[in-house]
């Protein structure tokens, strides 16, 4: 074979590998998932003598504890011990950002479902039985359930935050149109299939190993150490995978792990705690409901000149991640639009609901719902379509966000225009128009939803990760990072990176459990940044090993390091026939006493944010896209279907197309669920009414859009994205916001007197009432 031909063969081989690695890859977890072999906390083989724990929680939303009688529960056969705040050797404190959250209530309860004690017994059944034997006397205090009430009473988590750009007050004076209004978006239950849980095992010398279903193993480790009053190195936290997290396990997986560790610490025995669905629904926080007011001002030619909002976040009983979530609401308050004069303010309102927490989008969706509502209102009043206003105000290159970052590599218009042309929006609109003309009892509606989402933890110091890569004697590879697999496919992406760098089959790579002893001081797997941060660290580690191996190869083959290429499990020197296999090379490295382990660190460069001026460059990059959503409403019943969702999404250069498509589809449907059918309800006493899956409806296959098409936007990707493959976990959730406005447009087609209301979710009941409502 001549040299050129050899090169061609080699290159086509390389292409084949690249395609195998980057495109057609399946989520490698799917093999164990479909066989029922994937291991969750509840599947661990537990030690003989393991105790089981159940939480005793507050049966009132706010009050003073006068008396608790544990005697009957303690006397029950099989009950080992009941733990309360009095048994805490360290601090009764689990708050991450603000220390305002006890593990167990002491003298007051602040929400219905607040943990008071832990019942530890021989079996979960006995512990549950014991729970029914506890009596509690609570002197009730006034209950706040809404953010507005909290604001009126001055009940806040922290000081308000405000971003501003330009001179909003002055700009309103130059507006042709000004509209004001109110919006409400409700909470959302995470409904991870695997409920919260943990398993703690005592080790020698008072050390404890905890297996937790957490997105943040380091927070679990740190909090256990704090509550037990021991050093962090005594606590090892291990995570195999989660049966879903969706943000609900970023902070709120911690208390259960701490409780299991506390009981294990005292009893010197293993302790397991798995919340059942009812307990999980009642005791854990959800997406934050927001009550907001807006004022929007436009010029005659529909340019938004000024925008002002006040967001009231219903934080629940303590801070948890609320301050960071409130901040992200401000970051995304103008969605994909450039508005030169902006004043946004957010108040984290303390109420007597379970502490609300991270949920896919992390406050961004709540902010984006308000600007889309303001645009819909303006369009309705002016008598134009919302898409005209949306299109007129899309972000452009070098526009400034209200937080000071200059928009670069902006794909807002590109995705918008691509969606409109690829999916032939004019034809769609014509179709809908003629359908509505010829149908009396059914109406269709369409809405466009552009998205712009910033990638990075908004708290700059959190944007770092490490990877520990071992190459074993036989050429197999083990990788440890902080990435937690929760269904998003990050483990597969990590494997792809290593397989790509070493050019070896994916079967040779193993992703180890996420473990605080192997990779320490980590950020949670969140902010859609897990693959970027941990992937970049993995890339650095693998490349360092590769360089080392190339030196070994060049010495063995007596050639220069530069001429060595590793491809498909072989070592090539120029384009000649391979002389060494990957395994030969590893053996040689061992004989030469070369380290086959690398630990690498990555920190996102060039990001910063100054909270004193509320300006900076907090995001590595933004993700863009546009969705077109159409719906058909049954105007006799108020029920509806989503006919199609057509999306042009900015994946950058996707490294795993199947996984990324799964993320877009899943997030979209989760977003539609939030906006339409998922209705969290508490009564005025703060009791959760939607406390089971019979009263809390999430989208199923029947309510999923009939057709979902996702076209990747052709772009270069971004250097700060792993292998130019942009973060994909959260952004597409916000396409679901379009569902609200598609429904609203269908209602308008039926009821011309409908006065727009912005009160999500748009349940069939609400649709029905709107169809027949006259102002
Ligand atoms: N996808 C699945 N299947 N399960 C999940 O729990 N969580 C979402 C998203 N996609 C989640 C998911 C959330 S809230 C985030 S922040 C990202 O995944 C986290 O993973 P990433 O950083 O790897 O995108
Ligand atoms: N996103 C998700 N989780 C977080 C963030 C964020 O921006 N900041 C802190 N935790
Ligand atoms: Mo996702 S809400 O950042 O866990």
TrEMBL record:
Alphabetized UniProt keyword annotations: Molybdenum, Oxidoreductase
InterPro entries in UniProt: Ald_Oxase/Xan_DH_a/b, Ald_Oxase/Xan_DH_a/b_sf, Ald_Oxase/xanthine_DH-like, AldOxase/xan_DH_MoCoBD1, AldOxase/xan_DH_MoCoBD2, AldOxase/xan_DH_Mopterin-bd_sf
Name used for this protein in its record: Xanthine dehydrogenase molybdopterin binding subunit
Record carries keyword Transmembrane helix: no
UniProt keyword Transit peptide present: no
Transmembrane residue ranges: none
Pfam families referenced in this protein's UniProt entry, alphabetically: Ald_Xan_dh_C, MoCoBD_1, MoCoBD_2
Ranges for domain Aldehyde oxidase/xanthine dehydrogenase a/b hammerhead: 35-142
């Amino acid at each position: 074979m001549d040299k050129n031909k050899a090169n061609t063969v080699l290159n086509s081989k390389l292409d084949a590998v690249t395609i195998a690695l980057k495109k057609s890859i399946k989520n490698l977890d799917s093999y164990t998932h479909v066989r029922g072999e994937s291991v969750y906390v509840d599947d661990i083989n537990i030690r003989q003598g393991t105790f089981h724990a159940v939480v005793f929680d507050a049966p009132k939303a706010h009050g003073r504890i006068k008396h608790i009688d544990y005697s009957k529960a303690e006397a029950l056969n099989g009950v080992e011990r009941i733990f309360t705040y009095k048994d805490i050797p360290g601090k009764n404190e689990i708050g991450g950002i603000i220390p305002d959250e006890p593990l167990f209530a002491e003298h007051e309860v602040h929400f219905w479902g607040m943990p008071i004690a832990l019942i530890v017994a021989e079996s979960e059944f006995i512990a549950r039985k014991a729970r029914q034997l506890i009596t509690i006397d609570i002197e009730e205090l006034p209950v706040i359930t809404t953010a507005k009430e909290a604001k009126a009473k001055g009940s806040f988590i922290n000081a308000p935050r405000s971003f501003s750009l330009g001179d909003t007050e002055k700009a309103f004076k130059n507006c042709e149109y000004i509209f004001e209004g109110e919006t409400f978006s409700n909470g959302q239950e995470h409904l991870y299939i695997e409920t919260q849980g943990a398993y703690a095992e005592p080790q020698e010398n008072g050390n404890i190993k905890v297996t937790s279903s957490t997105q943040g193993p380091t927070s679990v480790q740190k909090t256990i150490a704090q509550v037990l009053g021991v050093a962090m190195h005594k606590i090892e936290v291990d995570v195999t995978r989660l049966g879903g997290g969706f943000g609900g396990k970023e902070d709120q997986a911690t208390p259960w792990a701490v409780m299991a560790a506390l009981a294990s610490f005292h009893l010197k025995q293993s302790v397991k705690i798995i919340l059942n669905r009812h307990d999980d629904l009642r005791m854990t926080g959800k997406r934050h409901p927001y009550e907001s007011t807006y004022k929007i001002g436009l010029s005659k030619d529909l340019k938004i000149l000024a925008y002002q909002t006040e967001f009231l976040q219903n934080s629940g009983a303590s801070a948890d991640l609320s301050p960071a979530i409130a901040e992200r609401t401000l970051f995304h308050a103008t969605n994909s639009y450039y508005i030169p004069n902006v004043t946004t303010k957010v108040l984290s309102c303390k109420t007597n609901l379970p502490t609300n927490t991270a949920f896919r989008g992390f406050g961004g969706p709540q902010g984006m719902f308000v600007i889309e509502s303001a645009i819909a209102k303006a369009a309705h009043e002016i008598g134009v379509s919302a898409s005209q206003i949306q299109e007129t105000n899309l972000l452009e290159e070098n526009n400034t966000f209200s937080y000071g970052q200059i928009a670069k590599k902006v794909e807002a218009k590109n995705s918008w225009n691509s969606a409109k042309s690829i999916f032939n929006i004019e034809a769609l609109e014509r179709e809908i128009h003629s359908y509505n003309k010829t149908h009396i009892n059914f109406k269709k509606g369409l809405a466009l939803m552009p998205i712009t989402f910033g990638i990075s933890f908004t708290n700059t110091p959190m944007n770092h990760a490490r990877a520990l890569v071992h190459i074993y004697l036989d050429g197999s590879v083990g990788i440890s990072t902080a990435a937690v697999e929760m269904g998003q496919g990050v483990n597969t992406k990590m494997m792809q990176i290593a397989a790509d760098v070493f050019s070896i089959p994916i079967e040779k790579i193993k992703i180890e459990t996420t473990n605080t002893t192997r990779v320490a001081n980590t950020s949670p797997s969140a902010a859609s940044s897990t693959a970027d941060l941990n992937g970049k660290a993995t890339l650095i580690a693998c490349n360092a090993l590769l360089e080392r191996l190339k030196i070994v190869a060049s010495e063995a083959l007596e050639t220069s390091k530069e001429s060595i290429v590793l491809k498909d499990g072989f070592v090539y020197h120029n384009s000649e026939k391979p002389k060494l296999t990957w395994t030969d090379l590893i053996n040689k490295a061992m004989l030469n006493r070369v380290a086959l382990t690398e630990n690498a660190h990555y920190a996102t460069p060039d990001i910063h944010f100054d909270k004193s001026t509320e300006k900076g460059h907090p995001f590595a990059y933004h993700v863009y896209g546009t969705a077109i959503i159409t719906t058909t409403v049954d105007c006799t019943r108020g029920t509806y279907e989503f006919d199609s969702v057509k999306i042009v999404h900015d994946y950058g250069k996707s490294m795993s197309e199947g996984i990324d498509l799964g993320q877009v589809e899943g997030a979209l449907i989760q977003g539609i669920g939030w906006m339409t059918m998922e209705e969290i309800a508490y009564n005025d006493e703060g009791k959760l009414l939607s406390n089971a899956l019979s009263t809390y409806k999430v989208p199923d296959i029947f309510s999923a859009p009939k057709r979902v098409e996702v076209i990747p936007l052709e772009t270069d990707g971004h250097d700060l994205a792993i292998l130019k493959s942009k973060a994909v976990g959260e952004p597409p959730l916000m396409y679901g916001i379009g569902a609200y406005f598609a429904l609203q447009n269908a209602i308008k087609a039926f009821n011309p007197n409908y006065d727009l209301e912005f009160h999500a979710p748009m349940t069939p009941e609400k649709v029905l009432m709107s169809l027949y409502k006259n102002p």
